[in-house]
Amino acid sequence: MSDDSSYLFYQSRNPRPFLDYGEGIYLFDEAGNRYIDGSSGAMVSNIGHSNPRVLAKIKAQMDKATFGYRLHFRTHPSEDLAAKTVAMTPDGLDRVFFVSGGSEAVESAVKLARQFALTQGQDARHKVISRFPSYHGCTFGALDLTGYDPLREPFAPMMEGMPKVAAPATYLDRDNLSEEARGIKYADLLRDKILAEGPETVLAFIMEPVGGASTGALVAPDSYYGRIREICDEFGVLLIYDEVMTGAGRTGKFLAAEHWGITPDIVAMSKGFGAGYAPLGAIVAGARLVEPVLDAGGFLHGFTYAGNPLACSAGLAVLEEMDDQGMIENAARMGEVLMVQLRALMDRYPFIGDVRGKGLLTAFEFVSDRETMEPLPPELDAHARLVELAYERGLIIYSRRTRGGMTGDHFLIAPPLIITEQQIDELMVILRDALDAFAQ
Ligand code: PMP
């Protein structure tokens, strides 16, 4: 079927070939072409495609019951997935609420925070401070938290404006600060903002521990994370980690928060949590927050498909497989291998200005000048061109252009966590070939 005869629409018309099947880190189209899934879709397929043990478990659940409404029945898949999730997350996060996607997870986190504040008599706390650039989803609430005006402005007025603070973009800083001092400097922007807004009105702060689509795998200086936690504690502001992209092993730990020993108050997850086997997400929070809400009459929130047994059986099988096969440890090891190879690209291509990331959430960024980190001119359409050159050669990568005017064309390389060293070499051969073609 040609594109003209498609009834479907997404962001734009879709000229891509039809997908046939997936296997491990590879996807195949109907013409038999093979692609390395170098971005796990949109950082989703963490355990790789068509994992036979996961498929067998989903099929077994299908034979029993595909749906039982959560208010009518408890189900073993949902209870077991909640238990497995708690076992894999840091202590202090021991209550789970299921959703079907990342935006739903973010909305749920904010609503839980709000209801908890009400149980504490803190009715004035309603503002959620987020960062720019940032991405938290496309529903109105999550979009209101997203620090990227081109996505927000067409829909204004939305909800009540949510305050924003700058996310660390340390490679753009031209100061003489040490890494540590710079981390503190950025964290203290939150402190200033809370004071300016009036601490008694601030409900929560939400951040991606490692930037995803918004900043391209940007990691803050280590000092940032602890300082943010301290500031939130100082003012009684709840700390929400949006780990929709970074969670489920992507950065070499189950949660990225573990890299800095941080326990957020609420964590939002999706993407790799269902790993492409089911539309699935979750928020995880401490009993400290959840129990008072339940005592006060219950969480006034829920989606019809939330916690359905089929999606939860998929999620459970995904986490078991991730754990049993040591995929998170592999992500940490392979992330280092990949990072060395990506850094080496800077010797060969002067237009690569920065390489960064954590675990298997890595990125490189194009610039016209490494000194000033000036982006390439938008008319070059560099992000789309490189993606096409790689796609033609059988490599899928994920790119974004200038976010909030702060970063230029960046490319996320985030293959499934099962990738081997040999497969990284294979990926890099295609990537270098695409970059050579781009450079011409
Ligand atoms: N938060 C983050 C950090 C994300 O990367 C995304 C998706 N890119 C979302 C939220 C929204 O997730 P979804 O598209 O599943 O609603």
UniProtKB/TrEMBL annotation:
Belongs to the class-III pyridoxal-phosphate-dependent aminotransferase family. One of its GO terms (molecular function) is transaminase activity. It comes from Falsiruegeria litorea. PROSITE patterns: AA_TRANSFER_CLASS_3. Its cofactor is pyridoxal 5'-phosphate. Keywords: Aminotransferase, Pyridoxal phosphate, Transferase. Pfam families: Aminotran_3. This is Aspartate aminotransferase family protein. InterPro entries: Aminotrans_3, Aminotrans_3_PPA_site, PyrdxlP-dep_Trfase, PyrdxlP-dep_Trfase_major, PyrdxlP-dep_Trfase_small.
